[in-house]
Design brief:
Elements lengths: L1 E6 L6 E10 L2 E11 L2 H10 L6 H26 L4 E4 L2 E6 L3 E5 L2 H8 L3 E3 L1 H5 L3 H4 L2 H28 L2
Parallel strand pairs: 1-4, 4-7
Antiparallel strand pairs: 1-2, 2-3, 5-6
């Protein structure tokens, strides 16, 4: 199954999309793209992250990020081909260890814009009992995240080899 894994981390540098082919335990990275956040989007995320804020600001940003994630996925799909599933971690705006967490980036918007089913909010599951953490969607997210990490490493190695010549 071809899956798009979407990640935006606490570095707030942007949205990473890895397109991977999953067949049993075999994983093949098909392609990887990063889409930088604008200064305004980065500022909006910081304005609602682990701070006193208005729920209206969080709600607006939740839908805005859904739109941005959908655009990033569609851009990757144009480059690397269609996917049957999207796994989206969401943007963490609050995390308190194993007790609670909040990620935003509306999955319904991503699904509507792309026409592809979306699995999201993985980190919330990690605060659930251990049985739930073993859920197969979490494994898919971990697999996609691994592909993103490998793509970043390969991109870094490629950049280093070009500059060392």
């Amino acid at each position: 199954m071809r899956v798009a894994g979407v990640m935006s981390g606490t570095s707030l540098d942007g949205i990473d999309v890895a397109i991977v082919e999953i067949a049993g335990r075999h994983l093949e990275t098909i392609g990887f793209q990063s889409t930088p956040y604008s200064a305004a989007t980065r500022a909006a995320i910081l304005a609602v992250s682990d701070t006193a804020t208005q729920t209206s600001a969080i709600s607006r940003l939740n839908f805005q990020l859904g739109e941005l994630y959908a655009r990033a996925v569609l851009r990757a799909v144009r480059s690397f081909g269609a996917v049957r599933l999207i796994g989206c971690h969401g943007q963490t705006i609050y995390h308190e260890g194993a007790s609670n967490t909040l990620q935003i980036g509306e999955a319904a918007v991503i699904a509507e814009r792309t026409g592809v089913p979306v699995v999201s909010n993985f980190r919330a599951r990690a605060t659930s009992p251990p049985v739930a953490r073993a859920h197969r969607w979490c494994r898919t997210w971990i697999t996609c995240s691994s592909a993103i990490a490998r793509a970043r490493a390969l991109r870094s190695i490629s950049a280093e080899s070009l500059t060392s010549r």
